[in-house]
Structures are given as C-alpha cells and as structure tokens.
User: Fold these one by one.
Assistant:
Number 1:
Amino acid sequence: MAHRLTSTMEDYLETIFNLGEEKKVVRVKNIAKSMKVKLPSVTSMLNTLSQKGLVSHEKYEYVELTREGLKVAREVARYHKTIFNFFSNILKVDSKTADEDACRVEHAVSPATFKKLIAFMEFIEICPRTGPDWLDSFDEYCQGGSSKEERAERMKNFMEKYSIEIAKKIGEG
C-alpha cells in the first residue's frame, strides 16, 4: 500500500471507509466501538493520519477521509473483500475466521500476489475443469480426503462430462 502505513493505520482507514458507507457520518466514538479501542487511541491515530494527509478531523467534529485517504481505504477494503471471498467461498473457511484472517493477510500481500489471486479466482470460475463440481470435490477432500478409487471415479466422471461438452462445442462450430 502507499504511504508506508502500518497495518493499524490501514485498519483505521478501512474502518472509517466502512463506517462512512454504512452511516454516512463518522464519529470518533463509532470508530472506537467498531475497532474495540478507547477514544484516546482513536484521537491519537486520527492526529497521525491527519498529519499524513489521509483524514480530516477537528476536535468534536466528524471524521472524513481526504481524497488520498479514500484511495488508500478503498484499496485496503478491496484487498480485504477479495481475500475474504477467497477464504470463505473457495476454501470454505467459516465467515468469522475468514474475516479475521483476511484482515491479517490484506496488509502483507503484495500487489503482484493480489493480482495473481484475482486471476486464480477468475480462472476457477471459467475453466471447464473447475467450477462448482470442482469446488465441491475440493471441499469433500478437505472434510476427510478421498480414496484413490474415489478420485479415479471422479476423474472418470469428469472426463465423460468434459468429452460431451467438447463434442457439443465442436458440433456448434
């Protein structure tokens, strides 16, 4: 992320962004409640973020993201949402754990890795060898694995379905 921000700074920006989307007006007490921190901690961080030109805040007033703060907050929120979706929808991690893990990972993943993650998720959706059946099989495997015979049977079934799809496409062309 830009500005060499700490993960805590990014969390504050993301929280302000999310609260702004939800409530339209963001107050210090809303940030403190959402992040489960005390008011003085929020005030201190807001001063730091203000000095970096990322938030606008006067004592006893609303908190607003600057143009640059909004840009960074949107990026952090996008990383979080994408990683959360990967964990919950692809890996089938429970929502609470997926959210907590996404929060930790969003700060550490590079833009290049994030781009590859997006490409992988898109690939899973469009590749004829993947899709819902593939994800269900992966989920079954994670639940308790499968025997060599079960995997062979799944592969055989896949090949039959895939051959039919190919034949249809050739017939259409």
Note: The radius of gyration is 22 Å.
Number 2:
Amino acid sequence: MKKSIVFFVGLLLAGSSLCFSQEKNRSTYEPGQRAQSVYMELLGPGISYSFNYDTRFQQSLNGLGGRAGISYYAIDGNSMVTIPIMVNYLLGKEGKYFEMGIGGTYAGFNSEESADDNEILFVDGSGVIGTMVFGYRKQPVDGGFLFRAGISPMFGKGNFIPYYGYIAFGYSF
C-alpha cells in the first residue's frame, strides 16, 4: 500500500511538471507567428487620425518592428491624405512597453485655397515630414485590446513641433 501511494504521488508530480513545461512562453510567440496589431490613432504621425498595421520583425512581443498607416479626409473643398511609415522598438515585457520610433509621413493636400496656407510643415501643400514616437503601449501577451499614448515630435521645412500627442485604440493578435 505504501509503495502504491509513493508511486501515485510520484506519477502525479511527474505529470504536473510535464503540464507546466508545456505552458506557453509569455515572451515569445509560437514558431511561425509574430506580434501584430491593427489600431486607429488620433493625432500622431497620421496628423489628424490614421488606421495602422503594426508588426514585430522577429517572433517576439517586443523588439524591433514597423508600422504603416493611412488616413483621408475632406472638408469644405479641402482634402488631405496621409501615409505614415515608421520603424519602432518596444522595450518592456508582459504586455507593458515603452515605445520609440522614427519614420516619415507623406501628406498630400488638395485645396481650393492658396498653397501658402498649408506650408507650416509642407512645401507646395504636400510632401514628407519626419516623425517620431515616444510613449506607452499596452498590448496583451495573448492578444486583445491594444492601447497606446504618448508624444510624436514632427519636423519638416525648417520647423519642429516637439509636443504633438497621440492616442490609439485597437486589437493585437
């Protein structure tokens, strides 16, 4: 009887260690997968708003990655399209990251007004501006609701806007 209890307890411990060893590593995805997300960003590199796709370049939740987005709006005969493209780096773990990135945003204007009215950051009403991001990103390890917020300095045509903010909501998978 005593030997069967010891055998049963030993079998139970061996089985539980096998179960724990099969638990998903929380810092990397399974082979063939990488952290990806889609989100809507207000302000930031998209200037007014943008819809974005973001991915890591390696099979991990943090580290080097990139993003691309697009936005379009038209008001009173004026229209603008923006296309932000950036590389970024996530520093942190367990779904809470400091995000920093650099890139450029193409902005094209079509206006009934003089092009001089749109030359704060752009030459001739359209062009590419430099953008950066520094902020917080909450991206769950197992996917789900994504939140981002921070500042996005912009520079172009001899001008620099250091405190242009952004906030984003989306889904990571």
Note: The longest strand covers residues 78-93.
Number 3:
Amino acid sequence: MIKNPSFRDGKVDELILFFKKEPKNDLYKVFTTHFRVKFYAYDIRNKKPGKLLCYEQIILKPDNTTQKINIDLKELHIKYPRTGICVGIETFNPEKRNNSKTMYLTSPNLRYTHDEESLTWKSYKGKEWSKSDRKLKSKVFGKVHYKYANPMIQMKVQFRK
C-alpha cells in the first residue's frame, strides 16, 4: 500500500519498480518471469486492497539483471485515491514448459525494503487478501533486527489543484 500523504485526489503518472538478478544456482533451474501490474484503491474499512482502478493489461518482462524500470502510465489515467493505492504485482510465465517435479526459481526478483510496518498483502489464485507478515533480518551496529519486507516501489503522482 502506498499512502496518500496529501489526502488529495490525484493521477498516477509513473510507476518505478526495482528488480535484482537471481544469482546462478546449480541446484535449481532458473526461469525468466513476466510481471502483471494492477492498481487497487485502498479499502480503509476492511484494511486491504479494494476496488480495481485500471482494467488495462500492464505486462512487464524485465531482463534477468539488477535494474530499475520506469513505467509511463499517463495515458491510462489511473486514479490515486485519498485513501491510498495498492499496487498488485503478479508473477507468471506465459510460455509452455514441460512439467517438472523438481524445484525451480524465477528471476528477476523484486527488491524489498526493511520497514517498521507491513504494507503488503497477498492473494493466491483469486483467494481473499491476507496481510503479509514476511520479515527480513538485518544487522545494525552488530545487533540483529527484523523488519517487514515491502516491495521497493516508487510512484510519480499528479495531484489536483
């Protein structure tokens, strides 16, 4: 969820996503993945993603490199509600591949922040949204801390005057 600090309606002009390359792994096969991006209004009452804000298909296929991708959204006129916005990021692979009983990895992967608050929900195969409690371990001055993992996302927004 990306909070709206101004509490004014706006329009999303650009979405910026950060990816990192999956290192070569001899134990698992690595497949390049596609990403589908969706935008939802934040539902304050139920405290989770709510109404879908854009019905356009936004599909990305980044290279398996560490990179920052800027997505120009000006032409889609995606509303940035006063309540905040949730950016849905789904990984998928449209290419047919042989079913394998072995483990595999997908790449590139989203980069994550280390935050005091969880701002992330998950939903699998159309099921209900549930709050993510995934934490990352970090060391500060030799002391171990656990903070919430939220995808590293930035947006450029144009607010109404």
Note: The two ends are 24 Å apart (CA to CA).
